[in-house]
Design goal:
single chain
Length: about 300
């Protein structure tokens, strides 16, 4: 048996010897490393490039270009930022130029009055003052205001036609028509259109609420004028009811009233579309009664004491 196990023991000793020799050659306790020194010593830099030690010494927070990293997709972002910066610089230069022109002309450095074109009393610039997301809403409300001006003017023409074509006793109708025109045009501008303009420009929840309040009154007046029910001096409104009544007495006056009724109807439908659009923007902006009270408190409004 000992003679049979002797060759196996010899092979085992040879294999163990080889393994120990290999571990001694590569292990940290070896007498010399790959470069002739200790295995734990820093490797000697090669002539072909930076060594491992040199790579470790590189600052990890240095710019990508310093570490040899290509900017890749970041180049596009830098171009976009540069473009935006150039646009801002251009706008700032344009504002300074306008201020210089106004100062040279002896005027104030604020916005120059530009509306209405031939008798300016205020500054109006939807594209320049209203954010892009609210421009469509404000522009629709602006056309609604212009439509109201047209309706009030035609309503005044209708009452004048009634005064001339239907005989005496219509002086009150004519005066009411003139009162609607004189009071309605500036009233609508300041009470609901400028409120919406300011709300769109500043995203003010309180201004939106003021707009809704006065625009509801506008809707009621326009709807009433389109129908002109036979109460409260109905002839002062060129609505369908009065158009049917007067066309038998004077065809010309009746036609004028029917045109006015059609204009009032279009204005009512357009106004309904405007309030629907404004409400969508109002809710889409995350506004609610709490934000209205908070905004009123910031502006010193009547709800300031109840602000949360």
């Amino acid at each position: 048996m000992e003679q049979l196990l002797a060759p196996l023991q010899l092979v085992s000793k040879v294999e163990v010897g080889r393994s120990l020799a290999y571990v001694s050659a590569i292990g940290p306790w070896s007498a010399s490393g790959a470069n002739g020194g200790s295995a734990w010593a820093a490797p000697t830099p090669s002539a072909s490039g930076p060594s491992w030690g040199a790579d470790v010494s590189t600052n990890a927070f240095s710019p990508p270009a310093a570490q040899g990293i290509s900017p890749g997709a970041g180049g596009k972002t830098e171009k976009d930022l540069a473009k935006r910066e150039a646009d801002l610089v251009k706008r700032e230069a344009d504002l300074k130029r306008r201020e210089a022109e106004l100062a040279a002309a002896g005027g104030s450095t604020g916005p120059r009055k530009n509306w209405p074109p031939y008798c300016s009393f205020t500054y109006h610039d939807i594209r320049g003052e209203i954010p892009e997301g609210a421009q469509g809403m404000v522009r629709c409300a602006y056309w609604c205001y212009l439509g109201l001006v047209l309706c009030l003017f035609w309503n005044f023409v209708g009452t004048a036609a009634a005064l001339i074509g239907l005989g005496g006793g219509k002086i009150a109708t004519f005066l009411w028509g003139g009162l609607y025109l004189i009071g309605g045009v500036p009233g609508a501008w300041f009470l609901w259109y400028r409120r919406l303009y300011s709300a769109g420009m500043r995203d003010s929840a309180f201004q939106y609420t003021v707009f809704f309040a006065f625009f509801m009154a506008h809707l009621i007046f326009v709807g009433w004028s389109a129908i002109a029910p036979p109460i409260l001096n109905s002839l002062s409104h060129t609505g369908f009811w009065e158009a049917i009544n007067v066309i038998g007495d004077n065809t010309g006056v009746g036609v004028v009233y029917f045109i006015g009724a059609a204009l009032w109807s279009i204005e009512f439908l357009w106004s309904f579309w405007v309030v629907k659009m404004v409400y969508s923007v109002f809710r889409g902006g995350g506004h609610n009664m709490r934000s209205v009270r908070n905004d009123a408190a910031r502006q010193g409004g009547p709800w300031a004491t109840n602000a949360a």
